[in-house]
Specification:
The chain is mostly helical and 270 residues long. It has a single domain, classed as Farnesyl Diphosphate Synthase (Orthogonal Bundle). 76% of the residues lie in helices and 0% in strands. The longest helix has 31 residues. The radius of gyration is 19 Å and the shape is globular. The two termini are 23 Å apart. It is found in: Membrane. One of its GO terms (molecular function) is transferase activity, transferring alkyl or aryl (other than methyl) groups.
């Protein structure tokens, strides 16, 4: 959701009916389907994705995810054919990431790049072009699009930090396993630093540094929690657990959504 609001805040002239439809397609159909398919393939027995004790998936879940994908793809033509093509690309990459026969998530770097490119840059472009009244007249702001990928890149490994044992049992090597628990935190901090560096350059070029400062205000709680958690993990690796990961998810998601919604509101009233 943060990438959606982030991209929408850069659209100069928003087609609101299409923007609302894009929100529904992404958050009611595409993302839940992707998560459901991943759960079906993984069959996690331990805590995962915000659920402490997940139920074992059934064959019906697989069928539901297929129909949700079909619905998302077909309804995407109401936006534009190019939006539908991007939607199909996301669905294919998501399936390749989780599918037992392809299983891109087995490979730490390829799996990581698949996630950040699709959930970050691709979704940014989909929202930016799809929600614009005249997309042809709005060249994509590439620095924010790349920054979106780095923002996902700084967040995603943290969601894997408590799953090392479960992933190893499933013969999956995530980027977090490759980096180690301490290394995951340092890597995520570096990715966030790059993302905000790109945003600073962009806003400075646009003479909108005040918008960048607004973003920083909303990220203060995230930084404080992250640093406290980093210190705890540095002293005791067991602190990289499910409970703290979910707390980080809630704080980061809430603050990021609010930051980009405020920028969107300021842009609309300005």
């Amino acid at each position: 959701m943060p990438v959606y609001w982030f991209a929408l805040s850069f659209v100069q002239d928003i087609n609101w009916p299409r923007a609302i439809l894009i929100f529904v397609l992404l958050h009611v159909l595409l993302y839940p389907s992707s998560n459901g398919y991943n759960s079906y393939m993984d069959r996690d027995e331990g805590s995962i994705g915000g659920v402490a004790n997940p139920m074992q998936p059934t064959r019906q879940l697989f069928y539901v995810t297929v129909w949700m994908d079909v619905a998302a793809f077909l309804l995407s033509f109401l936006i534009t054919p190019s939006f539908a093509a991007a939607m199909l690309c996301y669905i294919i990459c998501s399936r390749a990431y989780s599918n037992r026969y392809i299983r891109l998530k087995r490979f730490p770097v390829i799996g990581y790049l698949t996630v950040i490119v699709n959930q970050g840059a691709l979704v940014f472009c989909m929202v930016y072009y799809g929600a614009a009244v005249n997309s042809a007249a709005q060249p994509i702001p590439w620095l924010p699009a790349i920054a979106a990928a780095f923002l996902i890149g700084g967040f995603y490994p943290i969601t894997q930090v408590y799953q090392h044992e479960a992933d190893a049992k499933d013969k999956v090597t995530t980027i977090s396993m490759l980096l180690g628990k301490r290394g995951t935190f340092l890597f995520c901090a570096a990715m966030y630093a790059v993302a905000f560096g790109l945003l600073f350059v962009y806003f400075q070029q646009q003479r909108q540094v005040s918008r960048f400062m607004i973003l920083q205000l909303f990220f203060i709680p995230v930084i404080i929690f992250f640093l406290r958690w980093l210190i705890q993990v540095w002293k005791d690796a067991s602190r990289a657990d499910f409970k703290r990961t979910m707390q980080m998810n809630v704080i980061a998601g809430t603050c990021t959504n609010l930051a980009f919604i405020v920028l969107l509101i300021l842009d609309q009233v300005g």
